[in-house]
From TrEMBL:
Pfam families: NnrS
Keyword line: Membrane, Transmembrane, Transmembrane helix
Transmembrane is among the record's keywords: yes
Name recorded for this polypeptide: NnrS family protein
Chain ranges passing through the membrane: 21-42, 62-85, 92-109, 115-133, 145-163, 169-193, 205-228, 234-252, 272-291, 303-324, 336-354, 360-378
InterPro entries: NnrS (IPR010266)
Lineage top rank: taxon: Bacteria
Length: 394
């Protein structure tokens, strides 16, 4: 039973501060567009000397600024559904979002001492871990407790990457985000698909599920260890390839054929497959399976298949569904142009992966991202800023 203690007080809040998904989805999407524009201007030689925009900044902001905001917004909202306990709202939510915003501005502007955004960002993720963890522990929902160490991992990596700006740390963070999506996506995508078509969900093969989760953890741990001591890249590559193969076996059971009839579903399935393809490419690059191809370019293609298609595409699909459901609307009736937004994100992935390192890959993928997420802001931004249409709190 959802615990709402004071309905009048709840309705007195501005709609933006009633649920975590509202400000964090909105802020994360807007910031992704701003950050990509600034990065593109820098690549074109039109950047500002007053800003910290660089390749490391670009990676940091898309991982911790954009994906981090969406992950926290999703988990802090989902914990209400999981536990029946009220999600953070009001002043607590304003403080949480303020920490996120201070980090974004601090990392951007050279005049701000670096320790300030580092502290603000670490505080953001630690506070999120506490808010989610406290609710999960209160109802002893051990199944979802894994999100707490994941958020704490975000905090540690945010500080480490914010100070060192290391490319391997950015890849480790990318793998952390991807692992969270693999775990949560493996739960919700087959469920959404079966429910949409009134089909009985295929029973999960437990050893396959455990193998997928275990390989995610193993890849993260061994990759982290490789930052501190020598680890043969072959082993990292073998783990990435094995993880990709296990994921193929998992998602091949998710009624893909039926999902292709429904944009709100094929956007999840196809982008999940793009993430799997990225893992396989990453493993191939680390093992050296495709030696005629430049290893750095292959790794970059793999990283962006995971980042743009896997993470960016799945995020767009999920925040669309969450926004509809949590504002009292049906996920089966998306706003006009939603399908176009999904197609644009797929096109952005293909442009970035297949056309790089030509300059057209950067500006075309950026333009397609801006158009895709611009549609989200146009169609779903007003929903995030307005009360639920069914008059319920949240």
């Amino acid at each position: 039973m959802l615990q709402i203690t004071d309905r009048k007080k709840e309705n007195a809040l501005h709609p933006l501060w009633r649920m975590p998904f509202r400000p964090l989805f909105l802020g994360g999407v807007v910031w992704s567009c701003v950050a990509l524009l600034l990065w593109l201007l820098t690549l074109l030689g039109k950047g500002s000397a007053d800003l910290r925009v660089s390749a490391a900044w670009h990676a940091h902001e898309m991982l911790f600024g954009f994906a981090g905001a969406i992950v926290v917004g999703f988990l802090a909202t989902a914990c209400q559904t999981w536990t029946g306990l009220r999600a953070p709202c009001g002043r607590i939510l304003i403080l949480l979002c303020s920490a996120w915003l201070l980090a974004r501005l601090g990392y951007l502007i050279w005049a701000v001492p670096l320790w300030m955004p580092v502290i603000a960002e670490v505080a953001f993720f630690i506070a999120a871990a506490f808010m989610v963890g406290r609710r999960v522990l209160a109802v002893r929902q051990w199944r979802n407790l894994f999100v707490v160490p994941a958020l704490l991992g975000f905090a540690g990596l945010a500080a480490w990457h914010g100070i060192t700006q290391s490319r391997p740390l950015a890849i480790l963070t990318l793998l952390l985000v991807a692992s969270m999506i693999l775990v949560i996506g493996g739960r919700v995508i087959p469920f959404f698909t079966s429910r949409r078509f009134n089909l009985q969900a295929r029973p999960k093969i437990l050893w396959l599920e455990y193998a997928g989760h275990g390989l995610c953890v193993a890849l993260l741990v061994i990759f982290a260890a490789s930052l501190l001591m020598p680890v043969p890249r072959f082993w990292l590559g073998a783990l990435a390839v094995l993880l990709g193969l296990v994921q193929i076996a998992r998602c091949a059971r998710w009624r893909v054929r039926e999902a292709l009839r429904e944009p709100m579903l094929w956007s999840l399935h196809l982008n999940y497959w793009l993430m799997v393809a990225g893992l396989l490419l990453l493993g191939a690059a680390w093992i050296g399976l495709l030696l005629p191809i430049n290893t750095f370019l292959l790794e970059s293609a793999a990283v962006h298949a995971i980042a743009v298609g896997g993470i960016g595409g799945i995020i767009l699909s999920m925040i669309t569904r969450v926004t509809l459901g949590h504002t009292g609307r049906s996920p089966l009736q998306p706003a006009p142009a939603t399908t176009l937004a999904f197609i644009l994100l797929l096109a952005a992935t293909l442009a970035r992966v297949l056309l790089a390192p030509a300059m057209v890959a950067y500006w075309l993928s950026t333009l397609l991202w801006l158009l895709g997420y611009g549609i989200f802001l146009w169609r779903y931004g007003p929903m995030l800023l307005s009360p639920r249409i069914d008059g319920q709190p949240g």
